[in-house]
Each structure stands twice: as structure tokens, then as C-alpha cells.
Write a structure and sequence with these properties.
By secondary structure, the chain is of the alpha/beta class. The chain contains eleven helices and ten strands. Helices cover about 40% and strands about 15% of the residues.
Length: about 300
């Protein structure tokens, strides 16, 4: 089965990327020029802005106009949906006023009334609709935090997310090893297949807390997702002002060769594979992605 392997980065507008001045040409000073330049180099990107705030449909529509016909966007789910603490100012202003009146600076999914949750899901779906209509929407990426351990409660929540996103392809990434320890690995993969969800293969530091092992398996007949976070063990759990500092890592040629071979093998029976470089400090993601892309192309010749 021929497979399209799309390699790209997690975000194309990280502040450290823009500040370093090495990826974008000097005249790429507007959102349009930056995205057009990015899309001239890569055929795929993961949208991370949607994790922080719900996108505006007008913005996602403009993305469709600034990219080639075969360009693909994976969109990260809004952080409230995945169990992350969400600051009140991340909510749309009209919904913010309807939140429970507490002194907590951030709220969790369980804190939010059901009618507001439903409205957030509705707006998230509307936000990605221009991408879907243009044939440029890949997967909705649900990155669950380390405290979402394998448990009946967590399983029910993921299943609820899958139900609410049932019109789209759902990619699921876990950050806790309990999902893949011992017999749990086979059970988790079987459950993801039953859900119709894409198992996200992760490459991250080994032997540090708040990681899940790399399980090189597929659970969806049409799509595989591989997310490469780098192997910076010292920074993985560091408290930094910007998330890009935790993913500061340049893959060695030997590591890229190994990853290219694994990705090529994983992709043999899948229609599409999306490879996300989340090493998004300065232009490391772009350099890692370009180097990996060339190695995969060599293997496919």
C-alpha cells in the first residue's frame, strides 16, 4: 500500500522561532507570508494555538487560502477538554462570565457546567470546519496530561471526547506509563482500535517521570501519528516560562536514521503518516524535520 508520510512541526509561530531569524526570510513579517513560506517547505503542520484558545473560524479559513491544496493541518484540542488547568481568560468572554464564581485562577473540565462545556465543543467544531471543508484537516490531537492515568474514570472521559469528536479523526497521546505497562499496552491499543482513535507514537526521554513509552503500533486503518519531543531528560519536567524550553533538542544523525527506519516500517500498511517535530525551540523543529524528511525520502526511493 503506498503511503504518504507528512513531516512537519508543532507550530510555525513559536516566539523563539520568530526571534531567532533563521527560518523565515526577512520579508516574512506577516502571518500570511510566514505560513506561505512554511508551506513551501513542509506539507503538514500541527496547530498548537488551539490548545491555548479556541481558534476563530475566519482565521482557519485564511489558513486554507494560504496553503497548497494537499497541505494538512492537525489541530490540538483545547486544553480544557484534555484535563489541563485552563485560565479563565482563555475562555471566550461571554462564556467566561458564566463560569462559577470562585477564587481559583484556573478551572478544570469538572468545574465547568455542562452547558458551557457543550458550547465550547460546538465552537471548537465550528472553528475547524473551514479546514475540514477544504480537505485540509488531518486529526484532532488530544494530548492528555500525566495525571490522566489509566483508570475507569479516565477511560470514560476519553470515550466522551471520542463521542463528541466522532465526525473527525481523533488522535490520542498519553503522558503516563500506566497506559502501556505490562498487559495494559495490548488493552489500550485494542481499546483505541475499538474507538476508531489514532494511537500517537511518542519519542521522548526515557526513564524520567511524566512520560509514556514509545509503542510503535497503529490502531487506525488510515492514519498513524508519530510525535517527536526530543530526548532532553534534564528539561522534560523543568518549570519554564515557555514550553519550547522543555523541548530543546537536536536529534543526532544516528537518531534520525533510526527514527526514519521505524517510521517507514510503521507506515507500510497505513495510507497516511503524520510526523510531528515538537522540538520547537528556535528553529530546531524545522531543522530536525527537514533532516528527517530527507532520510525518509531516501528510504522510499
Amino acid at each position: 500500500m503506498p503511503c504518504d508520510i507528512h513531516v512537519g512541526t508543532a507550530s510555525w509561530t513559536d516566539p523563539t522561532l520568530l526571534a531567532c531569524g533563521r527560518f523565515y526570510p526577512p520579508d516574512a513579517t506577516t502571518p500570511e507570508r510566514r505560513l506561505r513560506h512554511y508551506a513551501s517547505r513542509f506539507s503538514f503542520v500541527e496547530v498548537d494555538a488551539s490548545y491555548y484558545r479556541l481558534p476563530d473560524p475566519a482565521t482557519t479559513h485564511r489558513w486554507t487560502q494560504r496553503t497548497p491544496d494537499d497541505f494538512v493541518f492537525n489541530v490540538k484540542a483545547f486544553r480544557l477538554f484534555t484535563g489541563h488547568p485552563t485560565p479563565r481568560d482563555a475562555f471566550p468572554s461571554d462564556l467566561r462570565r458564566a463560569l462559577p464564581d470562585t477564587d481559583k485562577p484556573a478551572v478544570y473540565y469538572r468545574d465547568v457546567p455542562e452547558d458551557i462545556r457543550a458550547e465550547l465543543w460546538r465552537r471548537f467544531t465550528i472553528a475547524v470546519e473551514p479546514l475540514r471543508m477544504a480537505g485540509k484537516l488531518g486529526a484532532l490531537h488530544f494530548q492528555f496530561p500525566p495525571w490522566v492515568r489509566r483508570s475507569p474514570r479516565s477511560i470514560r472521559h476519553v470515550e466522551r471526547c471520542a463521542y463528541l469528536a466522532q465526525e473527525h479523526t481523533l488522535a490520542v497521546e498519553f503522558r503516563d506509563a500506566s497506559w502501556f505497562e505490562g498487559d495494559a499496552a495490548a488493552q489500550t491499543l485494542a481499546w483505541e482500535r475499538k474507538l476508531g482513535a489514532v494511537h500517537v507514537v511518542v519519542d521522548s526521554p526515557v526513564g524520567v517521570p511524566n512520560t509514556a513509552p514509545a509503542v510503535w503500533e497503529t490502531t487506525h486503518p488510515d492514519l498513524a501519528v508519530v510525535r517527536l519531543h526530543g530526548r532532553n531528560a534534564e528539561a522534560w519536567n523543568a518549570q519554564t516560562s515557555a514550553s519550547s524550553g522543555r523541548f530543546m533538542y537536536e536529534y543526532s544523525p544516528e537518531e534520525l536514521d533510526e527514527l526514519a527506519r521505524r517510521i517507514a516500517r510503521l507506515s507500510r500498511t497505513i495510507r497516511d503518516t503524520h510526523v510531528v517535530l515538537n522540538t520547537n525551540f528556535e528553529d530546531q523543529g524545522m531543522r530536525n524535520a527537514a533532516n528527517l524528511k530527507s532520510r525518509i525520502a531516501t528510504l522510499q526511493q
